[in-house]
Write a sequence for this structure.
């Protein structure tokens, strides 16, 4: 049985979709690199703020499920590990985080270069077309059913 999205999911989906489309379309509207950076930072902050209620609800469900699975909190489990295991775990997290940031930066550069190539070929609003697709994908991800959704 599929349940309709919650109001928080709907708000997050719309704000994320519109914000993502605006984020990637900024080169068509704002020529200054510095102003474009500040606009993108504001759009990112807006999308994150819109997702906070849904994230809080998800975290509450995860905490509740974790309490039933085990009485040990993640902090207690981390403290019980030897120092070498903690260091290896933090190192792994750092590598994954750095890899994620690198992938995001590569994708951002690719999208910008792709738009610039479209502009050079004479396309009008070359960044906006792909930006609408990126926005639809980002917003649509919020509407996917979660594993914690009632079945």
């Amino acid at each position: 049985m599929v349940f309709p999205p919650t109001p928080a999911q709907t708000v997050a989906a719309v704000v994320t979709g519109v914000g993502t489309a605006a984020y990637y379309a900024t080169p068509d509207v704002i020529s200054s690199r510095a102003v474009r950076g500040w606009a993108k930072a504001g759009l990112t902050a807006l999308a994150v703020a819109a997702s906070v209620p849904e994230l809080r609800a998800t975290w509450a469900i995860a905490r509740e499920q974790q309490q039933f699975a085990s009485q040990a909190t993640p902090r207690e489990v981390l403290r019980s590990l030897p120092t070498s295991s903690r260091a290896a775990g933090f190192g792994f997290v750092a590598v994954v985080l750095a890899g994620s940031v690198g992938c995001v930066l590569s994708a951002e550069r690719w999208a910008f270069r792709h738009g610039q190539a479209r502009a050079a070929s004479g396309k009008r609003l070359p960044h906006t077309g792909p930006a609408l697709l990126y926005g639809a994908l980002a917003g649509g991800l919020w509407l996917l059913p979660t594993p914690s959704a009632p079945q």
